[in-house]
Amino acid sequence: QDIEKVMDFKNxxxxxxxxxxxxxxxxxxxxxxxxxxxVFARACEMFIxxxxxxxxxxxxxxxxxxxxxxxIAAAITRTDIFDFLVDIVPREDLKDDVLA
Length: 100
Description:
Elements: H1 2-7, H2 16-23, H3 35-61, H4 69-78, H5 96-99
Helix pairs in contact: 2-3, 3-4
């Protein structure tokens, strides 16, 4: 059942019009198929879920029940797949224990 949910590209919670607008922000992009924003929407949802789960782990490690900005920064710093985000995370959001 979970696999079917992952493969269901018709149900998405991000606005396709907004995704298409972002895609068209690049002047080199001329035409976008109807399926492309749907695939991007699903990819974005999966990205947000993964980052949230890793951030939540940091929240629980610190015995808190509210996910904070520094938890997201910690998840980004600790996870190689998020290396492309390191430069956009303000350094003041990272505590010494995260950088160690």
